[in-house]
């Protein structure tokens, strides 16, 4: 390795030229974005579960208390939304 990232990565599939000056990545941005996307995914999953419970409650054999199961999913949504709010308030730079 000569430190020449451009020639080091040129033969890798799906990787375009990476120049040494662009090699530094913003780990803060990556971490914050990942946390936001994870919370958004948890919300999407919980919403899908609620829709399933509402449209087909008999299909949930392990949840005889459908309303309790829905409440559990609403709690997941509330927790994820709170996490998004905290990230936006404390870690997103607003210009």
Task: Explain the overall architecture.
By secondary structure, the chain is mainly alpha-helical. The chain has a domain at 26-90. The protein has helices spanning 5-9, 27-55, 66-90. It is elongated, with a radius of gyration of 21 Å. The two termini are 40 Å apart.
Task: Furnish the topology, listing elements before pairings.
Elements: H1 5-9, H2 27-55, H3 66-90
Helix pairs in contact: 2-3
Mean pLDDT: 80
List the total number of helices. Answer: 3
pLDDT < 50 stretches? 1-12, 15-23
Secondary-structure class: mainly alpha
Spatial gap, N to C terminus: 40 Å
- How much of the sequence lies in strands comes to under 5%
> What characteristic shape results from the CA principal axes?
elongated
Q: Quick one: biggest sheet?
A: none
Radius of gyration: 21 Å
Secondary-structure element pattern, one letter each: HHH
Q: How much helicity do the residues have? A: 55-70%
Number of strands: 0
Question: Top keywords for this entry?
Answer:
mainly alpha; 95 residues
Please sum up the structure shown.
Helix content is 62%, strand content 0%. It is mainly α and 95 residues long.
């Amino acid at each position: 390795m000569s430190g020449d990232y451009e020639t080091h990565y040129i033969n890798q599939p799906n990787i375009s030229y990476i120049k040494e000056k662009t090699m530094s990545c913003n780990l803060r941005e990556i971490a914050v974005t990942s946390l936001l996307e994870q919370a958004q995914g948890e919300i999407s999953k919980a919403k899908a579960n609620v829709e399933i419970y509402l449209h087909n409650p008999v299909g949930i054999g392990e949840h005889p208390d459908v309303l309790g199961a829905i409440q559990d999913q609403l709690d997941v949504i509330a927790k994820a939304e709170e996490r998004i709010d905290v990230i936006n308030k404390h870690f997103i730079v607003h210009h």
